[in-house]
Structures are given as C-alpha cells and as structure tokens.
Design a protein that fits this description.
Distance between the termini: 39 Å
Structural class: alpha/beta
Bound molecules: adenosine-5'-diphosphate, magnesium ion
Number of helices: 9
Shape: globular
Number of strands: 10
Strand order of the largest sheet: 6-7-8-3-9-10
Radius of gyration: 18 Å
Strand content: 15-25%
Order of helices and strands: EEEHEEHEHHHEHEHEEHH
Largest sheet: 6 strands, mixed
Amino acid sequence: MPALLQVEKIVKDFGGLRALSNVSFSVERGETVGLIGPNGSGKSTLFNIITGTFRATEGTIRFNGETISGLPAHQIAKQGIARTFQAVRPFMHLTALQNVLIGSMYGSRTTHGRDQLREQAYAALKTVNLAHKAEREAQHLTVMERKWLEIARSLATDPQLILLDEFMAGLNPTEVSEAVEFIKRLKDRNITVIVVEHIMKAIMSCSERIIVLNAGTKIAEGLPADVVSNPEVISAYLGDSHVHH
Ligand SMILES: Nc1ncnc2c1ncn2[C@@H]1O[C@H](COP(=O)(O)OP(=O)(O)O)[C@@H](O)[C@H]1O
Ligand SMILES: [Mg+2]
C-alpha cells in the first residue's frame, strides 16, 4: 500500500523567491509527524501546497497513491485533508456551530443530510470541549476558544489527514499540555497529523518523526531524539534565539 501522503520534489517559487526547493517526504497512515524550521523556512507554504491553496511550481503530491496536486482546494478537502490556519479567523457573527457547519459542508467526504451535518458539527465541538458554546457567536469566544473552534471546523470534515499550523503559539503551559494530549488522541481516531510548532517540548512529545526545513530545503528527517542532536538542525534552528520557548 502506498504511503498516505507522498510529497515528491516540491518546488515553489514566489516571483524570484524560491520558498521550497525539491522537498520530498512521505507520511504513513496513523503517523504524527512534526514539521519544524525557522520563520520563513516554507512550512506554511508546504501546507498551502498540500491543501491546494497554492499550486506547486514543480513536483507532485500524492494522497492514497493518487495525484492530488493541481486539484482545486475543495476537492482536496473532500478527499480527506483538513488544515488549521496560523491566523485564526472565524466568521465572528456566526455561532460556533455555524462556523463548524461551514467547514463540514465545504470539506466532507460524503454527502449528508442537514440533520446529519449538524450532528457531525456538534460532535466536533464536543471533541474540543466547546459543545456548551455551540450557540455563542464567535466574536464572544476567547482567543483560545477560537483556536479550538478552528480545530473543530477541520475535524467536522472527517479528515484522514490534518495539518496543524502553529496551533500552540501563544498558549500557556497548561494549554500546551492540553493541546499535546489532544493531538495524541487524534491517533486513536486513526487521524494522521502533521504539526508545525515552535515549542520544542511539545513537538518532541507528540511527534513520532520530525522533518526540518531551512530556507525551503529539507535538512533533516528522523526520530525526534536524532533530529534534535543533528548539528545542522542545531545551527539552523535550535542553537540560538530562533526557538520561541
Ligand atoms: N503568498 C506569498 N507570496 C509571496 N511570498 C510568500 C507567500 N507566502 C509565503 N511567502 C514567502 O515564502 C517564504 C516561506 O514562508 P512561509 O511558508 O510562510 O514560512 P514559515 O511558515 O515556515 O514561517 C517566506 O520567505 C515568505 O515570505
Ligand atoms: Mg508559517
């Protein structure tokens, strides 16, 4: 069986800037993979290419063995890839439930009736402990609750793969531990996860494998313990003030 996700020789140019150069890796079903690297190293761009927000300049993305690069974003979502955005922007005047419903209508793999979509959306809110705020408008949720709402929105599409982009930025240590536990629980639901984070302790404890980008190039890939002792990773990312604690 092919890997769930295969990223093959992806190049992305923005005008004269090469944001990704020849990035390749694969992710197996059920894996939790950490993606790290300094700001501007291409992590979000890679997510944007996997989800079809951007088109790669060169290279191929395969999902379940089939080429998805070139497909429009909503079709990629329907195949089972969900993501959260680094900047969380819910529809402020819609309720938490309505925000999640929009997500499930956009990305669900199967066509459900209205009641079933509502149920699915409500279940997603429950998973992130926001069911009691289902009827609250997003504008009245705290920053943290909006972040969880973003996760609920992506879960409501019933994804096989979820891409989390700096979800933990700005969280306090208790909230970070909660987020780590939550990511670990996704594994029990057979959801494969790629997580972009700067908090090393968190990424070390929830990732089975870590991929390191620097200036658009993959400089390391391996077990967390090996990656953090890799001299190139230390000099590019871990060794100094790049890391936000
Ligand atoms: N839409 C865009 N247009 C032009 N340049 C972009 C765009 N998105 C990202 N970039 C550039 O691509 C590089 C990688 O950015 P990004 O993927 O956001 O990095 P990271 O998420 O690792 O911090 C940066 O130099 C950034 O300025
Ligand atoms: Mg980013």
